[in-house]
Write a structure and sequence with these properties.
This protein is α/β, with parallel strands linked by helices. The chain contains eight helices and eight strands, in the order E-E-H-E-H-E-H-E-H-E-E-H-E-H-H-H. The protein has helices at residues 36-56, 70-77, 98-107, 126-136, 172-178, 201-205, 214-220, 223-226; strands at 3-4, 14-19, 60-67, 82-85, 114-117, 141-145, 152-157, 183-184. The chain has an eight-stranded mixed β-sheet with strand order 1-4-3-2-5-7-6-8, sandwiched between helices. Pathway: Cofactor biosynthesis; coenzyme F420 biosynthesis.
């Protein structure tokens, strides 16, 4: 694991790890609505908003991004964010989700409470994340299920370091609970923003009228995007 140090050292607060896959592989399920260049731009914008939220949230002492993408790394260098290189070959791994191998390396040996926050939560703000962290601090292991109830948008550990095992991938919410003993933080974020990840055109469409981060809002308001036809009714003018 190669780590580029950020600008703050951990002081007993939370270490938050944000995984961002290479942008040319990001958000493939949006392909029926957005061309590759737009998907890449949207993924980078959402990652930017999530990273900035994590950095600005009270109680967070260190933020790490796990990525192999040069644009994401460049973004991280502008923020107080550590860069953890995605292990070589994880993109082609079979069996367990390769994301788990990358995350395991990123949290290994980190003292204090640790959390993983996915990079596709454009509605996540500091107040929502602070509420979730407060709830997570009361459990050895906890998660935030996605808005479908099957996936996981956040996972947290405050217990022994050797028991911290990410279980992301299909059906991850159930596996975090049944295999890892995690507690689902239902109701910790009444707004629901912490569970509303963006994977499909329908998820993008559901952002209509909701508050999203500045980078995400700028991307989906781009004039060039507005002029393109979008499948499944997705419009680039859907957010205020």
């Amino acid at each position: 694991m190669t780590t580029v140090s950020g600008h703050r050292a951990a002081d007993g607060g939370w270490t938050i790890v944000v995984p961002v896959k290479a942008l040319d592989r990001a958000k493939s399920r949006l392909a029926r609505a957005l061309p590759a260049s737009d998907r890449r731009e949207l993924a980078l914008a959402m990652a930017s908003d999530v990273l900035r939220t994590c950095v600005a949230t009270p109680g967070v002492s260190r933020v790490r991004v796990v990525t192999s993408d040069t644009d994401v790394a460049a973004l991280a260098r502008l923020l107080p964010v550590e860069i953890v290189a995605e292990p070589p070959g994880t993109a082609g791994m079979t069996g367990d989700d390769p994301l788990n191998a990358a995350l395991t390396g990123a949290i290994r040996g980190v003292p204090g409470p640790v959390g993983v926050v996915t990079a596709d939560l454009p509605e996540l703000g500091t107040s929502q994340l602070a509420r979730v962290l407060s709830a997570a601090s009361g459990h050895p292991h906890s998660i935030v299920p996605d808005h479908h109830g099957a996936g996981t948008t956040m996972a947290f550990w405050t217990g022994p370091v050797e028991e911290r095992r990410p279980r992301f991938g299909p059906g991850s919410a159930a596996r975090h609970v049944s295999d890892g003993g995690a507690v689902a933080l239902d109701g910790a974020d009444p707004s629901g923003a912490s569970g509303r990840d963006v994977d499909t055109p329908e998820d993008v469409l559901a952002l209509t009228g909701r508050t999203v981060g500045a980078a995400t809002a700028a991307v989906i308001r781009t004039p060039s995007a507005r002029q393109r036809p979008h499948a499944a009714g997705v419009s680039a003018t859907m957010v205020r």
